[in-house]
Amino acid sequence: MMSFMDKHEKEIKKFGMIKDYNASRDYLRDNPHLVREDTASYLTLWCVNLEMQEKQALVEVVSHQTIVMQYILELGKQLNRDPRSCIPGFFERIKTAERQYVEAFEDEIRAFKSRVKARAKEKVEAAIKEADEEERKSRLGPGGLDPVEIIETLPAALKECFETKNVARLQGVLAAMPKEDAIYHMQRCIDAGLWVPDAKAAGLTPASEELKKMNIAVESDSDSEYEAVDEEGEREERGEGDVTEMPLD
């Protein structure tokens, strides 16, 4: 199908833009190889793309030609004949048919356009969702948190500090908080990239250390653990740590 579309794309598009029954008949008579399901599929996809681009006038024309192609193909199935042989018969009938046949044809066009509109809407929504997700991923902080989401969940006073970039007020707001809350919010801000600490080469500086730099007392068991780990790491770097050698089998 893709090979056919690539080879005959210009011819298919030319047929899709024809607005006259006689011209459509003559064009298909001169290009009978276009009378196949692949052409109808291409025209359908083209309609969806045109709808996504909000080119309504073109959607009207191409939708009409899509149904023309589908009717010719369906006529071939009903008569158990090569659909290319049904080209003259279809156009003769559509021009002279009773009102009921014409109304059914027009109803099919309306239903097709409705399906095209629904499919285009789905594709646009999917594209927007994908773009939003890519944007969200691109702005994630070093700890994997979204700064937009985090700042909206901060206490109002703390949020205002980040929005106004007022470091002095930030220090005051954090100092007035219970130490557990201050550490919690500060760590989330670091993980979201709202606050960029003087990170060590090995990774992020804990929130408690950042608060200490602001002269905010946050001594706790967790701080002692950080200090113990750092002290042990320094001892190991100096060769003072306890290293247990694994036995070789």
UniProtKB/TrEMBL annotation:
<protein>
    <submittedName>
        <fullName>Hsp90 co-chaperone Cdc37</fullName>
    </submittedName>
</protein>
<dbReference type="GO" id="GO:0050821">
    <property type="term" value="P:protein stabilization"/>
</dbReference>
<comment type="similarity">
    <text>Belongs to the CDC37 family.</text>
</comment>
<dbReference type="InterPro" id="IPR038189">
    <property type="entry name" value="Cdc37_Hsp90-bd_sf"/>
</dbReference>
<dbReference type="InterPro" id="IPR004918">
    <property type="entry name" value="Cdc37"/>
</dbReference>
<dbReference type="InterPro" id="IPR013873">
    <property type="entry name" value="Cdc37_C"/>
</dbReference>
<feature type="domain" description="Cdc37 C-terminal">
    <location>
        <begin position="139"/>
        <end position="240"/>
    </location>
</feature>
<dbReference type="GO" id="GO:0051082">
    <property type="term" value="F:unfolded protein binding"/>
</dbReference>
<feature type="domain" description="Cdc37 Hsp90 binding">
    <location>
        <begin position="1"/>
        <end position="135"/>
    </location>
</feature>
<dbReference type="InterPro" id="IPR013874">
    <property type="entry name" value="Cdc37_Hsp90-bd"/>
</dbReference>
<feature type="region of interest" description="Disordered">
    <location>
        <begin position="218"/>
        <end position="249"/>
    </location>
</feature>
<dbReference type="GO" id="GO:0005737">
    <property type="term" value="C:cytoplasm"/>
</dbReference>
<dbReference type="Pfam" id="PF08565">
    <property type="entry name" value="CDC37_M"/>
</dbReference>
<dbReference type="GO" id="GO:0051087">
    <property type="term" value="F:protein-folding chaperone binding"/>
</dbReference>
<keyword id="KW-0963">Cytoplasm</keyword>
<dbReference type="Pfam" id="PF08564">
    <property type="entry name" value="CDC37_C"/>
</dbReference>
<dbReference type="GO" id="GO:0031072">
    <property type="term" value="F:heat shock protein binding"/>
</dbReference>
<dbReference type="GO" id="GO:0006457">
    <property type="term" value="P:protein folding"/>
</dbReference>
<feature type="compositionally biased region" description="Acidic residues">
    <location>
        <begin position="220"/>
        <end position="234"/>
    </location>
</feature>
